[in-house]
Specification:
This protein is an alpha/beta fold. It has a 7-stranded mixed beta sheet. The protein has one domain: HAD superfamily/HAD-like (Rossmann fold), CATH 3.40.50.1000. The two termini are about 20 Å apart. Helices cover about 40% and strands about 15% of the residues. It is built from 11 helices and 7 strands. β5 (about 160-165), α8 and β6 (about 175-180) form a beta-alpha-beta unit.
C-alpha cells in the first residue's frame, strides 16, 4: 500500500506549541492581542504569525539555544523508524517555523526528514521576518502552510495525517486516515472523518502497526473507518 505520512509539528511532535513558547520568551508586548485576533477569526494564521514574528527581539544564536529546551514526544523516532521499514515517506508539514523545526529534529538525529513550513528569516541583529512559501494559491486558505496543497503534490494514493489542531482541520477531510490529538479529535468526530485518537507516539506506533497488518486493498476510507469503529 502506497501510504504517505504527513505529521504536524507543534503539539504533535513537540509537547507544546513551540511558536507560542518563543513568542512568550522573546516577543515585545502585543503578540497576544494578535493571537486573540486569530482565535476570534478576524485574521488568518498567516497574517497572525507574520505580525507576531515582527515583534521578536532575539539574536539567532540565542533563539537556536532556546530550541534546546523544547520538549519532544520521545516516541516520535520509533514512529519514523516503523514508517521507514514499510517504505512510508514521513514529511513534517507545519504552520509553524522552519528554523525551529529543523533545529529540534536535528537534536534527535532526524534532521534528514523533509520539512514544509513557514520560513523564518533573520534580517539583521535581533530582527526577523516570516514568509509563507507553501501558502494556498487562492484565497480559500488563510494559513501560512496549506496542508491540503502540500498533500496534493505528493502523489501517493493513501494519506495518513498525524496532527492535533486547527491547522490540520482541512487536510483531515481529505486524508484516508487521521491519528488525532486534542481539538482535532473533536473536529474529526463532529464531521464523521476516519480517525483514531492517540495521546503520544508510543500509542501511534501501535496504531500504525495494526493498520499495516490489516488487509486493506480497496475502498480505503470505508475499510479503514470500519477497522477503527470495530
Amino acid at each position: 500500500m502506497l501510504w504517505q505520512a504527513i505529521v504536524d509539528f507543534d503539539g504533535t511532535i513537540t509537547c507544546e506549541d513551540t511558536t507560542d513558547q518563543i513568542l512568550a520568551r522573546f516577543a515585545e508586548p502585543g503578540w497576544e492581542a494578535i493571537e486573540d485576533d486569530w482565535v476570534s477569526g478576524r485574521i488568518g494564521s498567516r497574517e497572525c504569525m507574520a505580525r507576531q514574528v515582527e515583534l521578536l527581539r532575539v539574536l539567532p544564536a540565542v533563539l537556536d539555544g532556546f530550541t534546546e529546551t523544547i520538549a519532544i514526544d520521545s516516541g516520535f523516532g520509533a514512529f519514523v523508524a516503523l514508517c521507514r521499514r514499510h517504505d512510508i515517506p514521513v514529511t513534517v508539514v507545519s504552520d509553524g517555523l522552519d528554523r525551529t523545526i529543523r533545529a529540534v529534529l536535528g537534536r534527535i538525529e532526524l534532521g534528514a526528514l523533509p520539512v514544509i513550513a513557514n520560513h523564518l528569516a533573520a534580517v539583521g541583529g535581533d530582527r526577523w521576518q516570516l514568509t509563507s512559501p507553501h501558502a494556498a494559491l487562492t484565497g480559500d486558505c488563510a494559513s501560512g502552510t496549506c496542508k491540503c496543497r502540500v498533500a496534493d503534490g505528493f502523489g501517493r494514493p493513501l494519506t495518513l495525517l498525524v496532527g492535533d489542531g486547527r491547522s490540520d482541520f482541512c487536510l483531515a477531510g481529505q486524508a484516508d486516515l487521521v491519528f488525532a490529538k486534542k481539538s482535532l479529535i473533536g473536529h474529526c468526530h463532529d464531521n464523521a472523518l476516519p480517525h483514531h485518537p492517540f495521546s503520544d507516539f508510543s500509542e501511534a506506533v501501535g496504531l500504525l502497526a495494526e493498520l499495516l497488518a490489516s488487509p486493506v486493498t480497496s475502498g480505503a476510507q470505508n475499510q479503514l473507518k470500519d477497522m477503527i469503529d470495530g
